[in-house]
User: Fold this.
Amino acid sequence: MLWHNFRYTLRVLFKNKMLLFWTYAFPVILGLLFYLAFSNIEESESMDVFDIAIVENDAFRQDQAMRSAFETLGKEGSEEQMFRIAYVDEKKAKSLLSDGDIAGYLLMEAGEEPLVVVKESGINETIFQSVVGEIMRMETMIGTEVEQQVTEMMSQAQGGMDAAAAGNTQEDSTAAGNVPMGNMPEDSTAAGNAPEDNTSAGNVPAGIDIDALVDSVMEQMNETEVHLRDTSSGSLSYTMIEYYTLIAMACLYSAMLGMYAINNVLATMGVKGMRVSVSPAAKWKMVIGSAMAAYVAQLVGLLILFVFTIVVIHVDYGTHIAQVILLALAGSLAGLAMGLAVGACLRTNENTKTGILISVTMAGCFFSGMMGITMKYVIDKNVPLLNRINPANMITDGLYALYYYGAADRYWLNMVSLLVFSVLLLGIACLSLKKQTL
Amino acid sequence: MTIFRTYFKVMKKYSAMVILYSVMLVIFAAVNMQTDDNAAGFSAEKPDIAVVNKDEGSALADGLYSYLDENAVVSKMDKTDEALSDALFYRDVSYIITIPEDFEETLLAGGSPEIEVQSVGDYEAAYAEMMLESWIQTAQFYCGQMTKAAAAAEIQADNGAGADETAKTQADNAIASVAEIAEKTNETLAKQARVELTTSLDTDALAVTKFYFNFMNYSLLAGCVYVIATILSSFRSEHVQKRAAVSAMHYRKQNGQLLLANAVFALVLWALYMALSVILLKDAMISAHGLCYLLNSLVFAVCALSIGFLIGNLTTNKGALSGIINVVALGSSFLCGSFVPVEWLPDWVLAAAHVLPSYWFIQNNEAIAHIETFDFVSIRPLLARGGVVVAFTVLFVVCTNVITQKKQIQ
Assistant:
């Protein structure tokens, strides 16, 4: 009788188009939509080369460091390229900015600090501003270094001079700080390096080539290396969570199959149930046969979804395939148990039961990140208990743990939770069914 | 007005569901609007980072920390490996910096300490990395300066006191202590270019408003289409349909009355969302921008109404209806940028989305946020897109009439 009922339940389930739509087609459609909407997110977050403009006036032309730095940063195709730079006059820059063609433009004026003009605040604007700040910092350091080297050279040259000249030299050395500066007026240590100006500052002793000095110092600075060791995991694609919640949803939707299957053997749910109840067949055989059929139908649907997500939308489940399958089996069992419990315990019509199952599943998926990945993190961090008892999160978190941490404790904790959840609900369903048969 | 009155009688039967559904949508909208702020934000000017300082107590490591604390948002969370890894994965932080134990020691010795970092590879992480590199380069520079100053001081001592005025000046300017290196580094880095903003718009408030109205695409579509189609399918059930067919009333008039009843419902739903928008967004709605958003969504609400009307006439199977509604509402929302910012959608998805009315509605929402001054030139594109939505509406109404006519003949 068990197998007989199993076969027939399976046929009944496969003939119910609505049920098949929700359990088979809907997750696939949703997955496709996720893919269309999210496939570009992570790429658009990486840093791209963006457009800026520089007002090409005398002040800019004279600032060697600024000029050469932007030359490097704007070099097409080079690895260091950060910007696409348009060298224009101020009027053109303004119109480019108001049309939204550039993130901002740089305006240098003699006697003023460089000015970055942007339309609104944003990350590109912030980066542009900080790059200009960075070049200013380089200028400061180059100034300090050049000043020091000039001083050194002068003190060496002065070695042979008589004491009377000492006073003058002191003056010279302070003035030397000013030497390389053209358009950086504020203080001598912030010495810029417009070496074109060095003719006007005539106090540099002959024989010192400021131009060459600035170049060599700049080179030296650029060579300074910073050792960063990047230890981040390669598995950082957070949109995967969306697909994991999809699997969770599909697993839990087996509740509908389970509920539908068990309704057919319940006398309270219609004529079919009444007929089955008066038959001499053992009740447990009928129930188990139906539940098994629902489970098989569910696994077929899940298989379709897995194949679709792997082949078409390239979801990365990590390298532990066996554990993924195990988790999917346990997740489906949890969904089935939920369906059986709701089907057996609640004395209400099928629509209400379906409504309850869908609401519970969707709420569970919401808290595990389906409608916004941040939600899962927020709940995990602040209300961990809610996600500990949320079956959708057990599945999502299990898959996440496998993907990000490998088959470690966190995965097994979720596995065990799912099994405990299933056994608990199956127990409730059994008790309720036992009561009804007595 | 028999049909009009009957509509609301049927609605009464569904009212609990209607209210439940609307409340659910409203909650989703409100929750999403809030969580979106701390999701992978677009206007974030300070990157979110975490710093593990293993060289705590040393002047240089603390100096670096205080620099980062000032220029980035340094998370105050637990520093366990799992908490850090989770935070990185969910983009709570984009960059994790581990300052090694020998940080100060190595720097002072003239070397470059190896710093362990974890990065999600986005622009925030790139920006944080830029900061870190700048600080270390600057600190290295001043460490070098200090070493030189020490050497100069030695020379001075060798030459005898007062013998060399130049060297003395140099020593005066020189850096004497490690704390001073940190101080000078932070001082140098604090120098920033001046920035001038040209926009007079409150871009943050407009961004939130835009999000609310983009999300409304889903709320309006799901709400209108669900309720309207479900009630309509009751009217289209076989017996009711047959009774209507033999009545003296022309089918066009019947459709007209149904459309009117639906319009009243759609307008009430729209008004509800507008009231909510004023409560949630406050001042941002009481402005020319707010008015544009309001009108744009009204045009779209009418379009959603016509979509619901069409779908409700397609089938009387309530199960099939809920499937179609979900696919239509979720599909348009995902493809047109209701849930995901438009600029993040692949170009080809957006190109395909041109055939959906939601696309034009959302493109208008995006455009409104960038309007500086309201004149005919600036609102002309808005009118054009609004016209497309109206054209869709007319198309759907015509389709509905064709379908009902054909069904009647059958």
Summary: Residues 2-38 of chain B form the longest helix (37 residues). The beta strands of chain B are 48-53, 73-74, 95-99, 114-119, 194-197. Residues 35-44 of chain B have pLDDT under 50 and may be disordered.
